[in-house]
Design a protein that fits this description.
This protein is of the alpha/beta class. 36% of the residues lie in helices and 27% in strands. α4 crosses α9 and α7 crosses α9. The termini are far apart. The structure holds zinc ion.
C-alpha cells in the first residue's frame, strides 16, 4: 500500500516537473495536427495544434478582408504554409514573429467573414492545446462594422503625423541617420536559395551602423535591431521620434520584371518612374497588409495636402541625397543599376520633412547580386560608399540650405 503510494507520488512529481519545464519554453505549432479548411457553411475552419496553451486574441481587418490571430510567442520553425492551408477561401497566409514576445498569423479571406466560434482547449494529460476557430460568411456591411484592431496599449503606435519644426542647420552637430532594415518577423521579404531578405538587411544595417559610427560625425538609430515586424507607418514614426536628418531603408528584393540587377536608390513620388518600381512599392504595402496592419482610415485628404507642401521643400534635398548615394556606391565599385535613381509611392518614404530614400543594394533575383550580397567584403565596400555619399551630401546640403530658406 505504502509502496503503491510512493510510486504514485513519484509519478506525480515527475509530471509536475515535466509540465513546469514545458511551460517555461515556447509553445510549438504541431503542423501535423493543424489544418485550415473550408467549412460546409461557406466559411473557413482553422484548427491549430500547439504544444501548450498560450494567451491569444482574434480580430478581423478590412481592405482586403483578413483574420488576424495574435499569440503570446509561438515557435513556428519548420512549419510551412502549404502543409496547413487547404481552404479555397483563404487567398494567402502569413505567420511568424510580430513584435518581441508576440507571434501573429494572418489569413487573407476571399470575402467578408466573421468569427462564429473560437476556443482553446488544453489536454489535461499531455498539456497540448488546440485552437479551433470557425468563420462564417457575413455581409460586407456587417464585416465593415466589426473589423478593426482592438485598442490595446501594448500594440499602439506612436504619433506619426507630427511635423517637427526643424532647427537651424548646425555643422557641428552629428548627422542623425535612421537606418531601416527592410521587412522582419512575420514578413520575410524576398527569399532565394535560403537567403532571406529580412536577415540579410539586418546584417547589412548593423555593418552600415558600425561604418558610420567608426567614421564619426554620425548618430545612428535602427528601426529594428532583431527579427521582428515593424509596420511601414511605425518606421516613419520612429524616424520622426529620432528627429532624423536622413532616413535610409535597406532592401534586396526579388524582381522578375526587367531582370533587375545592381544597386538602385528610390525616392518618393506619386507617379512611379517605371513599372518595376511601382510593383516594388505595391509589394511592400502588400507585405504590410499580410502582416495584419490596419490601414483603414489613415488617408485624410487635408493632412495629405499639408504633407505635400512640406514635401515640396524636402524633395530637392532628397533628390540630391539620392544622387550623392549613387555616386558614393559607384565610386566604391557598385555595381549600380543602369538607371540608378528611381521613384514610386513607397509608404516607408512618406516622412514629409526628412530626406528619405530606399536603397536596393542589390536584387536577390540576380545571381551576380546574390553572390555579392553574401560577400562581407563587398558589403563593407557598399557601406563605405553610402558613408561617403552621406558625407558629401551633408556638406553641400549645409551650404545650400540657407539659400533655400530665403
Ligand atoms: Zn524589400
Amino acid at each position: 500500500m505504502s509502496r503503491l503510494f510512493s510510486v504514485f507520488l513519484a509519478f506525480w512529481v515527475w509530471t509536475a516537473a515535466a509540465s513546469a519545464q514545458e511551460f517555461s519554453g515556447l509553445a510549438r505549432v504541431d503542423a501535423a495536427n493543424s489544418r485550415i479548411s473550408d467549412s460546409g457553411r461557406g466559411g473557413v475552419t482553422l484548427d491549430l495544434g500547439l504544444s501548450q496553451g498560450v494567451p491569444y486574441r482574434l480580430f478581423t481587418l478590412d481592405g482586403p478582408p483578413r483574420l488576424v490571430a495574435d499569440f503570446q510567442e509561438i515557435d513556428w520553425s519548420g512549419v510551412r504554409a502549404e502543409e496547413l492551408q487547404h481552404s479555397s477561401r483563404v487567398r494567402q497566409m502569413q505567420f511568424g514573429t510580430y513584435v518581441p514576445g508576440w507571434s501573429r498569423m494572418v489569413l487573407e479571406l476571399s470575402g467578408p467573414m466573421a468569427v462564429r466560434r473560437a476556443g482553446l482547449t488544453v489536454d489535461e494529460v499531455t498539456g497540448r492545446a488546440r485552437l479551433q476557430v470557425s468563420l462564417d460568411p457575413v455581409s460586407a456591411e456587417a464585416f465593415a462594422t466589426s473589423a478593426g484592431a482592438p485598442r490595446d496599449p501594448r500594440w499602439d503606435l506612436p504619433d506619426s503625423a507630427r511635423i517637427a519644426a526643424r532647427p537651424e542647420p548646425d555643422e557641428n552637430a552629428p548627422l542623425v541617420v535612421v537606418i531601416d532594415p527592410g521587412h522582419g518577423g512575420i514578413d520575410p521579404g524576398a527569399e532565394t536559395d535560403g537567403i532571406v531578405e529580412k536577415d540579410m538587411m539586418m546584417t547589412f544595417a548593423r555593418e552600415l551602423r558600425e561604418a558610420l559610427l567608426r567614421a564619426g560625425g554620425f548618430e545612428v538609430v535602427l528601426t529594428r535591431d532583431g527579427d521582428h515586424f515593424v509596420s511601414l507607418e511605425r518606421r516613419v514614426a520612429l524616424a520622426h521620434q529620432a528627429e532624423a536628418d536622413v532616413f535610409i531603408s535597406l532592401h534586396a528584393d526579388s524582381l522578375s520584371e526587367g531582370l533587375a540587377h545592381g544597386a538602385t536608390v528610390h525616392v518618393l513620388s506619386r507617379e512611379a518612374s517605371d513599372v518595376a518600381s511601382a510593383k516594388l512599392a505595391e509589394r511592400h504595402d502588400r507585405d504590410d497588409l499580410l502582416a495584419g496592419v490596419d490601414l483603414s482610415g489613415t488617408d485624410d485628404e487635408v493632412t495629405d495636402i499639408l504633407l505635400d507642401l512640406a514635401r515640396q521643400e524636402t524633395q530637392p534635398r532628397t533628390e540630391a541625397l539620392a544622387r550623392a548615394l549613387v555616386a558614393g556606391m559607384q565610386n566604391a565599385g557598385g555595381p549600380m543599376n543602369r538607371r540608378p535613381v528611381r521613384s514610386a509611392a513607397f509608404s516607408v518614404l512618406k516622412a514629409a520633412d526628412i530626406p528619405s530614400v530606399l536603397i536596393e543594394i542589390g536584387f536577390l533575383s540576380s545571381p551576380r547580386d546574390l553572390k555579392n550580397l553574401q560577400d562581407a567584403d563587398w558589403r563593407a565596400g557598399m557601406a563605405r560608399g553610402i558613408r561617403a555619399g552621406l558625407e558629401n551630401w551633408r556638406a553641400s546640403d549645409l551650404a545650400t540650405r540657407p539659400l533655400v530658406r530665403q
